[in-house]
Design a protein that fits this description.
The chain is about 65% helix and about 0% strand. It is mainly alpha-helical.
Length: about 200
């Protein structure tokens, strides 16, 4: 595990660490398609989806908007849109990918609407511990070296536990391209963090 991966997945209370918690168990994903099909008419189904995916949706949104409040807006809008879905096939669809693709599209729309002039990416920490701020600044400094697409891939892979195939579907890119961008991103992050990638 690299220093960067430790920072994301285990070090302190940085936002990416917090986002990696409370993800849905793999066994629950079999129910996702059914819940999506029901959430237009069932508050209970919508609430279950919200509990399962709010952290992952926030992570994807934050990787795009770079703003805590806009990411929260994205979470709200994403789940509102799930109540309006009419053409989702629960027998054939990839519910997890569908939700995160919706989140990505919403986040892009919100960013275009509110952040046209902003090009500065900043990972915000939250919580009271000094370690939160330190980790957040450290992660921010690392992620600023990535392109927007590389940053999104790293967040979806590390925070949302998506497979390369799922990320490829969400980003409308070949799986090989996603893998290549991810590996390049990790190399950049290791170099900038001063981590020797050789074993």
């Amino acid at each position: 595990m690299t220093l960067f991966q430790k920072s994301i997945n285990g070090g302190g209370e940085a936002i990416l660490t917090i986002l990696s918690r409370s993800r849905a168990d793999d066994k629950e994903y079999g129910e996702v398609n059914r819940l999506i099909a029901e959430c237009a008419s069932s508050k209970e189904s919508l609430g279950t989806l919200y509990k399962m995916f709010k952290s992952s949706v926030f992570a994807v949104a934050f990787s795009i908007t770079a703003d805590y409040h806009l990411a929260e807006d994205t979470v709200t809008e994403t789940f509102i849109r799930l109540t309006q879905v009419t053409g989702f096939n629960p027998k054939k669809g990839n519910g997890k990918g569908f939700i995160l693709k919706t989140a990505r599209n919403v986040a892009l729309e919100i960013r275009r609407r509110h952040l046209r002039e902003s090009r500065n990416f900043f990972i915000q920490g939250y919580g009271e511990a000094d370690k939160t701020v330190e980790d957040s600044i450290f992660i921010n400094q690392l992620l600023k070296h990535l392109s927007e697409k590389q940053r999104q891939i790293v967040v979806m892979k590390c925070c949302s536990d998506l497979t390369f195939r799922e990320i490829a579907e969400i980003m409308h890119s070949p799986e090989s391209t996603i893998k290549s961008r991810y590996q390049k991103a990790l190399s950049i992050l290791q170099e900038k963090a001063g981590v020797n990638s050789e074993k």
